[in-house]
Write a structure and sequence with these properties.
The chain has 231 residues and is mostly helical. The chain is built from 8 helices and no strands. It starts with 11 loop residues before the first helix and ends with a helix.
Length: 231
């Protein structure tokens, strides 16, 4: 993302507004896709049967956005982000069906409140969070390793894996709350350093929106695992 530091053509606050608009659109599409699958037994059966294929496609799309955003046209980047958001809603459905609709809604509101709060911290805090961000990146790698290890542990000791899952979710909530503040400050600084007249602002807004989108989705999933009420 730093390769675009001198690219886009809007002021800091305008750019941040564009980023959050894309993020909100992504979350809206995710919610609509998830609700559509949950509301149709036939669609649910079809999508669940294709779930691993959809997950692989979803991963491919997000990696394509991250690694190839620079060479994409703005319209291609926008379509890829929209497609990813819809796929994310579909692949989230199996998780959501474990919980009551009321608890999903309540946890969503709590997660949204936490996300907004940490975004405001990142926007207004005077302290440079760059060093903190490096720690968060290392913690994210550790979290991924712990989650994979816990999946393996489940086959040998489901009870121990369940206990570990609780602590992993607690750590994940703290991690993605911190990443929300860090990413918001980074996006704010990026917007303030932009030069006028460069055509990359649209693509950069999309990739920044993807970062915040992933922060929120992961925060929501782990909050749901901690506080959601099972069916």
């Amino acid at each position: 993302m730093n390769t675009y530091a001198n690219a886009p053509d809007v002021s800091g606050n305008q750019f941040l507004s564009k980023v959050y608009t894309w993020m909100f659109l992504g979350l809206l599409l995710t919610a609509v896709a998830s609700y559509a699958v949950m509301s149709s037994a036939s669609l649910q059966a079809t999508m669940f049967g294709l779930m691993w294929i959809l997950i692989i496609i979803e991963l491919a799309v997000v990696l394509l956005l991250i690694w190839r955003i620079k060479s994409m046209s703005p319209s291609t980047a926008a379509v890829a982000f929209i497609f990813y958001s819809v796929l994310s809603g579909i692949t989230l459905t199996p998780i959501l069906t474990y919980y009551t609709l009321a608890s999903v809604f309540v946890v969503f509101l709590i997660s949204a409140g936490m996300f907004i709060g940490m975004s405001l911290v990142g926007y207004f805090i005077k302290k440079d969070l760059s060093g903190f961000g490096r720690f968060l990146m290392m913690a994210l790698i550790g979290l991924i390793i712990a989650m994979i290890g816990n999946m393996v542990l489940f086959y040998f000791s489901p009870t121990t894996a369940s206990v570990m899952s609780f602590f992993i979710s607690v750590a994940a909530v703290l991690l993605f709350a911190g990443l929300t503040a860090y990413d918001t400050q980074k996006i704010k600084k990026l917007g303030q350093s932009m030069e006028h007249g460069n055509p990359y602002s649209q693509k950069l807004a999309i990739i920044c929106a993807l970062n915040l989108y992933l922060d929120f989705i992961n925060l929501f999933i782990h909050m749901l695992r901690l506080f959601g009420r099972r069916q």
